[in-house]
Amino acid sequence: MHVNSVPTGKRHDRVWDVNSKLATALVHSGLGERQANSFLSELNIPAFSYKLVSARLREVGNVVEEVAKESTNEALEKELAAVEQKKGKLVVAVDAGWQKRGSGRAYDSKSGHCSMVGPETGKIINYSVRSKDCRVCSRAESRNESPREHACYRNWEGSSKGMEADMVIEMVKDVQSKGCTVAALVGDEDSTTIGRVRANISNSIEKISDRNHLKKILGNSLYSLKKNHPVLTVKIIKYLQSCFNYIIAQGEGKPLSGSSLQKSLENVFEGYAKNSIKLSTVGSTQANESFNRMVSAKAPKHVHYSSSGNLNYRVAASVAQKNTGHRYLVNVNKKLGLSPGYHTQRLARLRDYQRSKQRALATTRAFKRKRLEKKAKMHQKLASAEVREGVSYQTGCSLDAAISDDIQSIPAPVITPEYLPLEPKTLNDSCMTYFDVETTGLGRDSHIIQLSAVNSQNTKFNRYIKPARPILPQASEVTGLKFQNGKMYHDDREVQSIGISNALKAFILFLKEIHNTVLVGHNSKIFDVPILITALEKNGLLNNFMSSVKGFIDTLPLFKECIPNQPSYSQPKIYNTLFGELYSAHDSMEDVVALRRLFEKYHLVLY
After folding, report:
1. CA dist 220 to 103, 213, 226, 234, 373, Å?
2. What are the DSSP calls for 420-431, one per residue?
3. What is the spatial distance between Cα 576 and Cα 167, in angstroms, rounded to a whole number?
4. 356 has which bridge partners?
5. Using H for helix, E for strand and C for coil, what is the string for 7-28?
6. For residue 215, what pLDDT band results from cuts at 50, 70 and 90?
7. What CA–CA distance (Å, rounded) separates 228 from 260?
8. With 80 as the cut, is the pLDDT of residue 270 above it?
């Protein structure tokens, strides 16, 4: 029987305070009249009229814009103080956003906004809004009448693409009218804003590129090369992006090969090399992008607010929240002569505290590492699911005449290998069998074309396997294996080959000759083991295989522990480092013999 007391407040100018606060709530939360009435009606609370909320929005909106302008002036003073302390020049980051998403072919948004952020404080020091529409003017034009007197927010007649340059020019002029000189603009490479700024204000204003946007452009170029160069994996692309972003690469990985890939990469980086001086100083528009997301939350792109002052109010609210936090709501209420409200202040303090705590956490190395690991795990899981499912969603895929009604998916793996540490005592009575596979490609869905092994008693196993799919040219270049006209060739020499099922059955018989077999491979946890288990599972031999082996050992972590600070831990490099010799790498038979020699050199570490 508890009763919640919901105070409606007093009146001001014959208007209930709660109605003005309702308008503030709509602007702050990103709701419109329809969404708010749907929410209230479900709670069995009477709806409010559109006429009421329109009048209150005009009342509240002017105050919100006033609060936003005060916050930008305060932010500008702090930015100038920080710049003066460092004895530097005023550099600002600018970026625009539209209220309608561009399709890539057309940008026809009726409105847009632009922000100017001071990099030293991360605050918005100026902002601007452009709108090509006005509800009152449009209605009068349709009736061939003169519009009634009203506050018109239509201030743009040009194209949507031209809004950004015009808003930046306006903001720069406004900042300079306050006695400040803008020395440089940080922005993306998607517009000709800097050229128009120089033509209309000063030729001395410099352009600084946005590091994140440059990294994205580079990534798009590299991903376009991936189609013709499969060796350019996602991991390598991200590494190249990191090297580019940090200027100097740290560490040394496995070198890329192929003259065609080298030429393509040279073409990509040639454009950046020509602008090396320009790229030596870059900035960031990340704060602007964060502001754009805040605006899209208060003014969703699927709702048309630009035909009235509603859009301006919501952009101004975003500016105030970005600069001062949720407590801007308290300032708005005070300027309206309304009580700040206990619950309003309480939630504002909570949200600002949560935001500051989140911001402090997001800058830690542990948080960034965890975020990258989570993202990589998600992409890996997604890629695995898409491979198993095949084409399920693609532009125009249902128009393909060759599409089959008999759509099947590759089932998920029956079991997931469990990785546990092996105690030295458990290995005393085990027989080490060193194995390696060569495949049709570099992905985990590749097919095995050579399977080799040698055990501690020097018994060898080697089978060439007829592939069920073409061998990629990159794989043939590395392994020397080709399959033409039903025949297998190794270094242009014909070799006998059999089917995958017979090869796996022979491998299992080889393993059963000795009890307590442990399979040893280099980097096998990532590549060889998943491919081998997938092949066994597809051929119904997994259970038989599992009863024949005790487990797996991956030597890559072992060598990293025993031989630290190496530029590369590929097996051929480690072999050459330790023995000063080379061998025919990527012939799986040669690989297992070399691996046995490497492993036995460090067997004391295990035992």
Report:
1. 17, 11, 10, 12, 22
2. -PPPGGGGTT-E
3. 62
4. none
5. CCCCEECCEEHHHHHHHHHHHH
6. confident
7. 9
8. no
Give per-residue pLDDT as tens, 6-32: 767 788 888 888 889 999 999 999 888
Classify residue 344 as exposed, middle or buried by CB count within 10 Å of its CB (0-12, 13-18, 19+): buried
> Distance (Å, rounded) from C-alpha 185 to C-alpha 592?
58
Strands across the sheet containing 487-490? 481-484, 487-490, 493-495
**Helix or strand holding residue 474 (H, E):** helix 473-479
Q: What CA–CA distance (Å, rounded) separates 208 from 189?
A: 10
Number of CB atoms found within 10 A of residue 319's CB: 29
Map tokens 């048309």 to a residue: 304
Looking at the whole model, is its pTM more than 0.90?
A: no
C-alpha dist (Å) from residue 69 to 58, 128, 325, 499: 17, 11, 14, 75
Q: What is the maximum span of the chain, computed from C-alpha positions, in angstroms?
A: 100
CA distance 48 to 36: 9
Helices 310-324 and 328-335 sit at what angle, rounded to 10 degrees?
120
Beta bridge partners of 91: 184
Q: Which two tokens stand for residue 115?
A: 């922000």
Rounded distance between C-alpha atoms, residue 352 and residue 345, angstroms? 11
CA distances, 406 to each of 392, 401, 403 (Å): 13, 14, 9
Sign (positive or negative) of CA dihedral 181, 183, 187, 193: positive
What does residue 250 show for φ and ψ, rounded to 5 degrees?
-110, 125
Distances (CA, A) of 193 to 70, 101, 167, 208: 27, 20, 10, 12
- Tens digits of per-residue pLDDT, 197-208? 888 998 889 888
Alpha helices in 363-436 (DSSP H): 365-389
Bridge partners for 90 per DSSP: 182
CA 333, 339, 340 angle in degrees (round to 5)?
A: 60
Distances (CA, A) of 595 to 141, 390, 433, 449: 83, 37, 10, 20
Where does 509-559 show beta strands of DSSP type E? 517-521, 549-554
What is the token pair recorded at 266?
Answer: 């040279």
Query: If you write DSSP's letter for every residue of 316-354 in order, what string do you get?
Result: HHHHHHHHH-TTHHHHHHHHTT----HHHHHHHHHHHHH
Rounded Cα–Cα distance for residues 539 and 465 (Å): 14
For residue 405, pLDDT beyond 80: no
Residues 6+ apart with CB under 8 A from 563: 569, 574, 577, 578
Q: Counting Cβ atoms within 10 Å, is residue 401 exposed (0-12), middle (13-18) or buried (19+)?
A: exposed
Query: What was the pLDDT predicted at 508?
Result: 93
In the three-class reduction of DSSP (H, G, I as helix; E, B as strand; rest coil), residue 595 is classed as helix
Read off the DSSP letter of residue 86: T
Cα gap 538→335, rounded to integer Å? 72
Measure the CA dihedral 133/137/138/141, to 10°. -140
**Number of C-beta neighbours around residue 224 at 10 A:** 11
- Checking if the pLDDT of 101 tops 70, the result is no
Do 595 and 556 form a contact (C-beta atoms < 8 A)? no
Q: Could you read off the pLDDT of 354-389 as tens digits, one per residue?
A: 888 988 888 898 888 888 888 777 776 666 666 555
By the 8 A CB rule, do 64 and 318 touch? no
